[in-house]
C-alpha cells in the first residue's frame, strides 16, 4: 500500500453531464492507492458520481461557464471528498424516499441520489456557504475492517 496520509487532490470539471466520470476515476485512483477494497471503491465511485451530477444539475443549473470542484483528502483510515458548486445548497436535510411509491409511479422516480449517497458512505453532509458563495457536499468513506 502506498502511504497517502495527508494528501489532497483537487479536480475541476465542467458543469456538463458526463464529466462526473473524471471525478469518479480520480476518486477511485486515490482510494486504490489508499488501500480500499474494490467494493468500497465502487461505493465511493457511485456516491461521487451522484454528488457531481447533483452539483452540475441543481447547483450550477447545467451552466457550462461554471465548474464543479472536487477535493479528495486522505487521512489515516479514511478519504474525505468535497464536491463544490455555485448553488445555494439544499434548504432541508434529505428525506428517505418512498421506494414503493416511486416503483408504482405515484412519486417522481428521480430524487434518490442524496439517499443513495448516504447509504454508500460513512458520513454525508450538505453545507451551504454562509456568505452565499456556493455549497458543497462532504463525503467521508472509511477503510473497511478487512483492510485496517
The total domain count is 1
**Tally of individual helices:** 4
Radius of gyration based on Cα positions: 15 Å
Q: Report strand %.
A: 25-35%
Low-confidence segments, given as residue ranges, are none
Return the average pLDDT rounded to an integer. 86
The biggest sheet amounts to: 5 strands, antiparallel
The CATH homologous superfamily is called Histidine kinase-like ATPase, C-terminal domain
**CA-based shape:** globular
Spatially, the strands of the biggest sheet line up as 1-2-3-5-4
Indicate the CATH architecture: 2-Layer Sandwich
Computed structural class: alpha+beta
Task: Supply the CATH class.
Answer: Alpha Beta
Q: What gap, in angstroms, lies between the N and C termini?
A: 12 Å
List SSEs in N-to-C order: EHHEEHHEE
Fraction of helical residues? 25-40%
Q: What fold name goes in the CATH topology slot? A: Heat Shock Protein 90
Number of strands: 5
Structure overview:
With 148 residues, this protein is of the alpha+beta class. It has one domain: Histidine kinase-like ATPase, C-terminal domain (Heat Shock Protein 90), CATH 3.30.565.10. It contains four helices and five strands. Strands 1-2-3-5-4 form a five-stranded antiparallel beta sheet, covered by helices on one side. The longest helix has 22 residues. It starts with 7 loop residues before the first strand and ends in a 6-residue tail after the last strand.
